């Protein structure tokens, strides 16, 4: 690789206007003029044009991709286009916009997919911009979808911010379709939180509905689908009357194992949690008070 000569003693690096530089590079975006690589993108098989030198110097994945392409003996020959069938053209254009200009234009319909592409192409700065946009524009409808992406792709900063939003709007969030479509791992992230602003009776009802939806989608029995998540329901918070109602409802689908409900009854009989994990005995932010909370569940309430 050619080496850039070292600057002479006494030389100074002077910078021109960043805005005009960015605008000039933006003019090359998806511009067939001087383009030397073509992408066939998405199910629509849309042609998008690029410049190998720009893409390769900005993205290691493209650098390696272009190295694997055979050299052309004649510059007039056409290289074979690169097929990218599993990404939307609008999403790939957003990635290219970032590579050419170090800026990206996002909206809610593509932000999560651009984040996925940023991770795929190893673009850390683009990843940060996507997380910043997604967490800054969360809504009740989109919060669970964003949390799911954060859990799937190991984005802990994004997961934390999504969970904070869900904690503040739990009663509305659990009514959304995206809540019902969560994976069991993502749902457990929510259920392990002390900050949920919902009472446990409502939460149990929402998780039961989640289990029934996923039972149909996965073609598995409700008890199998819910086996892990029900362990995070805080049945110790329920009164004896509510446990009786829960047992009656549970006979229809065996949503919660009998042994798990039995531990809650044992808690009421012995007035202690036995082998229960400590967090299962803690009230959430939205937990409505019951008599047994004050008497023997949480001494700090006395």
TrEMBL record:
<dbReference type="InterPro" id="IPR011705">
    <property type="entry name" value="BACK"/>
</dbReference>
<feature type="domain" description="BTB">
    <location>
        <begin position="35"/>
        <end position="108"/>
    </location>
</feature>
<dbReference type="Pfam" id="PF07707">
    <property type="entry name" value="BACK"/>
</dbReference>
<protein>
    <recommendedName>
        <fullName>BTB domain-containing protein</fullName>
    </recommendedName>
</protein>
<dbReference type="InterPro" id="IPR000210">
    <property type="entry name" value="BTB/POZ_dom"/>
</dbReference>
<dbReference type="InterPro" id="IPR042846">
    <property type="entry name" value="BTBD19"/>
</dbReference>
<dbReference type="InterPro" id="IPR011333">
    <property type="entry name" value="SKP1/BTB/POZ_sf"/>
</dbReference>
<dbReference type="Pfam" id="PF00651">
    <property type="entry name" value="BTB"/>
</dbReference>
């Amino acid at each position: 690789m050619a080496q850039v000569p070292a600057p002479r003693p006494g030389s100074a690096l002077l910078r021109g206007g960043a805005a005009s530089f960015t605008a000039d590079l933006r003019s090359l975006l998806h511009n067939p003029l001087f383009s030397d690589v073509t992408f066939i993108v998405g199910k629509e098989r849309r042609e998008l044009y690029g410049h190998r030198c720009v893409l390769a110097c900005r993205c290691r994945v493209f650098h390696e991709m272009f190295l694997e392409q055979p050299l052309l003996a004649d510059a007039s020959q056409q290289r074979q286009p690169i097929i990218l069938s599993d990404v939307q053209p609008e999403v790939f254009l957003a990635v290219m916009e970032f590579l050419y200009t170090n800026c990206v234009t996002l909206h809610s319909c593509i932000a999560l997919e651009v984040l996925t592409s940023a991770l795929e192409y190893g673009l850390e700065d683009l990843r940060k911009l996507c997380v910043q946009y997604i967490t800054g524009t969360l809504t009740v409808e989109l919060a669970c979808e964003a949390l799911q992406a954060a859990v799937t792709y190991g984005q802990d900063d994004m997961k934390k911010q999504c969970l904070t939003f869900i904690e503040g709007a739990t009663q509305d969030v659990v009514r959304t379709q995206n809540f019902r479509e969560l994976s069991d791992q993502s749902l457990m992230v929510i259920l392990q939180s002390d900050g949920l602003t919902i009472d446990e009776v409502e939460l149990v009802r929402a998780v039961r509905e989640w289990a029934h939806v996923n039972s149909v989608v996965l073609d598995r029995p409700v008890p199998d689908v819910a086996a892990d998540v029900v362990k995070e329901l805080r049945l110790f918070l329920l009164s004896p009357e509510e446990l009786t109602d829960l047992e009656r409802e549970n006979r229809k689908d065996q949503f919660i194992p009998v042994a798990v409900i039995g531990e809650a009854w044992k808690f009421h009989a012995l007035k202690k949690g036995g082998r229960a994990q400590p967090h299962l005995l803690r009230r959430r932010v939205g937990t409505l008070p019951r008599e047994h909370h004050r008497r023997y569940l949480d001494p700090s309430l006395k």
